[in-house]
Amino acid sequence: MTTADSPTRLDPASLAKLSRLEIVARLVVEGFISGLHKSPHKGFSVEFAEHRQYVVGDNIRDIDWKLFGKSDRFFIKQYEEETNLRAYLLVDASGSMSYEPHAKPPRPTKFRYASCVAAALSYLMLQQRDAVGLVTFDSRVRRYIPPRAKPSHLRGIFDELDATRPGSDTNLSEIFHDLAERFHKRGLIIVLSDLFDDPDKIAGALQHFRHKKHEVIAFHIFDEDEMTFPFTQLTQFEDLEPPDSRLLLEPRRIRDQYLSEVNAFIERLRRTCWQHRIDYVPMRTSEPFDSALATYLARRLEMR
């Protein structure tokens, strides 16, 4: 699906001008994603519904032995499929996500881009009565909003994303390990981050989610400058995360080595995700997020 196919036409310049996530999410979902996505998790898990009396041929593993001890009769636990998805949106609010390029036309920051993707997914999932929650984090969890399926829940998610300002350094692996232990019910983990951390540590943390039987989608968000390193003049580079350091460099001398290391980093993450059956979705802030998201969701449906 191309940008031209989208009646919303949320190109990066338009996105940079829109201030309210509610408007962005509604435009995207009502514009052209609505009806495209169906929950892939129907029958994902089961919940206990009621008892019925045992009959010959039933699996004895389903007998409620506690009830047998009270009644001296055999009863089978009946289950019903849990039809709603439980999703957790993990939005990186560390300092590196605040990178703001001096580009024309303007591009959103990585955090703004991630917030818009999160807002659209929240709107979409609540439209189909799925439960969605939000975690914002840097070197610690800054806010956790547990998953809910009520339409009114959307306002709290939007308000939190609107109010969050990236700032501190990051510790992705420790945060993810902590969250993997917190989320007791299986669900869908959606990571929105530039994933700036040690690749081996990230791999271990994402694997922890999979070990806990969660499904994982990693939206890897880049700015175009990080992918192409377009700088040509003597440039001062500033670390957006503590320690607050600056380096004055001649970009042309380090460009080839920089791009080589960035590409190796991306390939390592891609391979890790493939090995652990994690959806790896690269996203550039120079690309309209609505069409990028729709393309991914369409492909996801085709693979189900």
Write a concise keyword list for the protein shown above.
single chain, alpha/beta, 2 domains, two-stranded antiparallel sheet, 10 helices, elongated, disordered N terminus
The assigned CATH architecture of the largest domain is 3-Layer(aba) Sandwich
CATH topology of the largest domain: Rossmann fold
Helix percent band: 40-55%
- Compute the number of structural domains: 2
Count of helical segments?
10
Adjacency order of strands in the biggest sheet: 5-4-3-6-7-10
CATH level 1 class label of the largest domain: Alpha Beta
Summarize the structure.
The chain has 304 residues and is of the alpha/beta class.
Structural description of this entry:
With about 300 residues, the protein is of the alpha/beta class. The chain has two domains: about 5-40 and about 85-304, von Willebrand factor, type A domain (Rossmann fold, 3-Layer(aba) Sandwich); about 45-80, no CATH class. Helices cover about 40% and strands about 20% of the residues. It has helices spanning about 10-15, 20-35, 65-70, 110-125, 155-165, 170-180, 200-210, 225-230, 250-275, 290-304, and strands at about 45-55, 75-80, 85-90, 130-135, 140-150, 190-195, 215-220, 235-240, 245-250, 280-285. Strands 5-4-3-6-7-10 form a six-stranded mixed sheet, sandwiched between helices. A two-stranded antiparallel ribbon has the order 1-2. β3 (about 85-90), α4 and β4 form a beta-alpha-beta unit.
Give a topology summary:
Layout: H1 12-17, H2 21-33, E1 45-53, H3 65-71, E2 75-82, E3 86-92, H4 110-127, E4 131-137, E5 141-148, H5 153-163, H6 172-182, E6 188-193, H7 199-211, E7 215-222, H8 224-228, E8 235-238, E9 246-249, H9 251-275, E10 279-284, H10 289-303
Parallel strand pairs: 3-4, 3-6, 6-7, 7-10
Antiparallel strand pairs: 1-2, 4-5, 8-9
Helix pairs in contact: 2-4, 4-5, 6-7, 7-9
